[in-house]
Amino acid sequence: MIPYVTDSPDIRIPDSLLPADGRFGAGPSKVRPEAVEALAAASGTYLGTSHRQKTVKNVVGSLRTGLASLFSLPDGYEVVLGNGGTTCFWDAATFGLIETRSQHLSFGEFSSKFAAASAAAPHLDEPEIITSDVGTHPLPVARDGVDLYALTHNETSTGVMMPILRPEGAALPADGGGLVAVDATSGAGGLHVDPSEFDAYYFAPQKCFGSDGGLWVALLSPAAVERIGSIAATGRWVPASMDLTIALDNSRLDQTYNTPALATLFLFDDQVRWFNDNGGMEFSTGRSDRSAEILYTWADNSDFATPFVMREQDRSHVIGTIDFDDTIDAAQVAKILRANGIVDTEPYRKLGRNQLRIAMFPAIDPEDVAALCACITHVVGALGQ
What we know:
Blueprint lengths: L32 H10 L11 H17 L7 E6 L1 H12 L5 E5 L4 H10 L7 E4 L16 E5 L1 E2 L4 E2 L17 E5 L16 E4 L11 E6 L1 H12 L10 H8 L10 H16 L3 H21 L3 E3 L11 E6 L5 H10 L15 E5 L6 H18 L2
Parallel strand pairs: 2-3, 2-4, 4-7, 7-8
Antiparallel strand pairs: 1-9, 5-6, 8-9, 10-11, 11-12
């Protein structure tokens, strides 16, 4: 093994190899230039206006309708918005979705956070936490006494995706079974999902939806809406900013409880419109599917790179993690890429592996992923000379 270095050689990647857009970050993600241009065109009558008036409320309404269409939500499902991002939704769920006890699948940095929030909540029983090694995912197990199963569609830190299915043998919520709540922060819009398999599918807009952070969205089934109401009826104390009844009431009015970032809403809505105008979920997931095929085929055929996630069906189509041979310093490769305008390919810091992490969100052109692979091969070749 070579010692890893801090200084990078001046390796220039030929212009003919470079991607048209060099943004491959896991979030904030690439924002389409067309969306920025649309925001700039609307800025004079939209930015700096009241979020309680139709100018902004119409965007929220369009976003909610667009998401319902994109995910083909069944009758009775509702699109709910709140400020603060997914981290805040975890806290809100401990107040408003978990009655007594939850079960959590923990297989990376982010899937562990909701479990930690539930365990710390003094009004809840100790949750059941099912873990697996990084690079894999566990499966939920039907249990008596569990009223919420917490799944993660895509583990952003490791590049593992899992199928979203209700626990085998578990009763449906209507028959006394637990709700299924899915953290879809980096997966929503880029991975296939069946709404009948979840009761709360929540995410933020800075990943597949090509916007900024600071907002959470939850797609809620009738059972989840009923749960929110039944918990509220018990008189459980909830901070107003975490109160899902308040979020639900405001969303039905096409607004958020407190002031949202208007640019975030606009870019979010623009991305959803782009998806729906071009074929909906088949279009958006299809772009990520193609990018994943390109990336993993390249890594499988490489003599220095290997997909970190061993099982092909578990390899994420929106976040690719690629291990490097120990003779190659992936951090140095990332620095050289950055110096050439290809940014945010660094690995998740806490994972501590010699790898690159590459986003393949729908806004990222699959041809740019192919160009990135060629650039990595060029850099590694130049380092070996």
